[in-house]
Each structure stands twice: as C-alpha cells, then as structure tokens.
What does this fold into?
Amino acid sequence: MFVDKFYTIREMNAEGEKVIANIELNPQHPIYKGHFPQQAVVPGVMTLLMVREIAEIFLQKELQLSSSKNIKFTSPILPDVTKFLQIALTFRNNNQKGEWITDTEVLSDTNKICLKASLIFSEIS
It folds into this structure.
C-alpha cells in the first residue's frame, strides 16, 4: 500500500455504506520527479490507487479495480498547490457477481472536484 508513503490518511469516517477519507499528499514523493519535474501532477493511476486503498481499508478486503464507468478527471491535482484531498465513496454491493460498485468523488482542499467516477471493485480470492 502507498498509505504513509505517497499519502497519509488524516481522518476517515464511515456512515452506513459511505466513507469519507481526508488525506494529505506527500509532495516530496519520488514519483513527481518523473511526473512532471517542472510541474508535479498526481498521476491519474495514483488517484485511482488511493481510491482503491481507501475502499480496501473500509471493507477490510483485498480488492482489484475490475471496471469503471463515466470516469472523469476534471481537474489536475498539483501536490505543491493542493496538499489535502477528500475521497468520498458510496458503496453498493452486487452480491450476484461478488463486486462492490462505488460512486466516487475526489475533492481538492478548495472543494474542486478532481475525479468523479463509478468504479467496480472485485474481491481478490
């Protein structure tokens, strides 16, 4: 997991099938040397990885991203500018397929939507 390396969970609250995690990015992480040296940007795949890890912590299950629908990266996440993010996940369990469907939003510390998606996670056996 990238928790405590790429980012740190500062607070995580759950109510029913919804979880909200407030995280702090590590702007000194080596990934930014290559993405991009002149202006660090959180790679989209890392944003999805953070979402998956929050889902794993909430569900206490090992997951893999199996599908996505309507995924929209609406604003770049610049770790030198945006130090904190809020990841909000609302879960729906599809027991017939053993999948977890999430309505996902990632917000910047100025409440700007950075990612909005419907993601489907499968449990790893």
User: Anything to note?
Assistant: The chain has a mean pLDDT of 92. The radius of gyration is 14 Å. DSSP finds one helix and six strands in the chain. The chain has one domain: 7-123.
